[in-house]
């Protein structure tokens, strides 16, 4: 009976997983094809981008699965299910753990080998005469540097000490250390965990830069909308007339045979480039004004406003929850030396209160946690799309619909891979108790002495055994593999803690900036001075 129940649950899980995988692959294909340049698209770079984006989304979906499995092994009354004995529970935990390590190994392969190689290959292809062997050799030479970094991280992780200096001898902290010892018995897995944690720190920086800004920019852009295409076209026509008049005034200076001064020649060149850009804008605005997509967007404008208000409420809810969770760690954790780790919650936050309420109606809590994960991914995409890809103060690439270079798409997918690694810790910060134990409960037998008077007036005492249901317990509940993985190294946990404060600060700054900015142009980022006239044909595909 136990085997039949387990097989049925396993089959259902695999069916849902297959359906989710199909949806993810379709979304990744549509997303990459939507933004890639038609003139510069390459098969290998397209496949790489789709695969990397799919790995990022599948990895982010593993957190709800982990929480569901540890919760599914217990009944609502706090007892383990019949089939969930010690061996089966251990097998399920190991399966989830191996799933994490498999996906994280693929991420390491993508970040340190595949994506760098494809990137440098196409960089060399643009500047070479078409010699494939030379391009492959040069790409391998640059990729070797990334492989060296990965090897160094693996070696450090294999020998890094896991003993955490403990200044406060607390019972809870000793329990956590025992979990670490059980989880970190293999040096090979420890090396992989250290490498992934190192990438997670980089993902934290990317989340602070892109996700925090995207959480404020995306909803406010939906609320404010874009300027009217007809109004922009009218303004653009006036600008064209003004530039043409300025050009005629400068050219009139050389009608009598006199040469133009160097200053006038520079001004003339700048005005001609400006005129070409304005005429491209004119063609794009005309296409947008006549397109059915623009009319459809105008029709659903009220719905966009509703979604924008909803997203900004969700963003504020996340920020308040993150602030209260970090404040709880600052007040009640063992401090920096323990990575600011705490068990349970002392200061509750709105999200941590909402999830236990939704647990009463299956599967609302899993839908919410999945929605939160996807929200972080899509706001990260919005942040990268609005800001572009930067290296400190240098802007490397822009993400534009139908005109994004293959190298920019590879960068975008690599950044998303790194952000996904940090997403699990962000969710833990928002709802620490739920991420640790899911919906598990446990029973405690409590004995009461009941006193009463009988008919003769004599006092009568009896013992009453009562079972009280508590939400979680470290000894009697199964901890998710996500939690153990996140807190394997205390110094990384400390870095994540300070990163959360930076995330809150950047979100608030981005919110103020987004509120002060006006409406976006209907062709925001679609027409630039360095575009060629051939690029007009690429964008017109989306409006006809």
From TrEMBL:
<feature type="transmembrane region" description="Helical">
    <location>
        <begin position="189"/>
        <end position="213"/>
    </location>
</feature>
<feature type="transmembrane region" description="Helical">
    <location>
        <begin position="305"/>
        <end position="324"/>
    </location>
</feature>
<keyword id="KW-0812">Transmembrane</keyword>
<feature type="transmembrane region" description="Helical">
    <location>
        <begin position="44"/>
        <end position="65"/>
    </location>
</feature>
<dbReference type="GO" id="GO:0005765">
    <property type="term" value="C:lysosomal membrane"/>
</dbReference>
<keyword id="KW-0846">Cobalamin</keyword>
<dbReference type="InterPro" id="IPR050854">
    <property type="entry name" value="LMBD1_LysCbl_Transport"/>
</dbReference>
<feature type="transmembrane region" description="Helical">
    <location>
        <begin position="142"/>
        <end position="162"/>
    </location>
</feature>
<dbReference type="GO" id="GO:0031419">
    <property type="term" value="F:cobalamin binding"/>
</dbReference>
<feature type="transmembrane region" description="Helical">
    <location>
        <begin position="12"/>
        <end position="32"/>
    </location>
</feature>
<keyword id="KW-1133">Transmembrane helix</keyword>
<keyword id="KW-0813">Transport</keyword>
<feature type="transmembrane region" description="Helical">
    <location>
        <begin position="489"/>
        <end position="513"/>
    </location>
</feature>
<feature type="coiled-coil region">
    <location>
        <begin position="261"/>
        <end position="288"/>
    </location>
</feature>
<keyword id="KW-0472">Membrane</keyword>
<dbReference type="Pfam" id="PF04791">
    <property type="entry name" value="LMBR1"/>
</dbReference>
<keyword id="KW-0175">Coiled coil</keyword>
<dbReference type="GO" id="GO:0061462">
    <property type="term" value="P:protein localization to lysosome"/>
</dbReference>
<comment type="similarity">
    <text>Belongs to the LIMR family. LMBRD1 subfamily.</text>
</comment>
<feature type="transmembrane region" description="Helical">
    <location>
        <begin position="98"/>
        <end position="122"/>
    </location>
</feature>
<keyword id="KW-0458">Lysosome</keyword>
<keyword id="KW-0170">Cobalt</keyword>
<feature type="transmembrane region" description="Helical">
    <location>
        <begin position="366"/>
        <end position="396"/>
    </location>
</feature>
<feature type="transmembrane region" description="Helical">
    <location>
        <begin position="408"/>
        <end position="428"/>
    </location>
</feature>
<protein>
    <recommendedName>
        <fullName>Lysosomal cobalamin transport escort protein LMBD1</fullName>
    </recommendedName>
</protein>
<dbReference type="InterPro" id="IPR006876">
    <property type="entry name" value="LMBR1-like_membr_prot"/>
</dbReference>
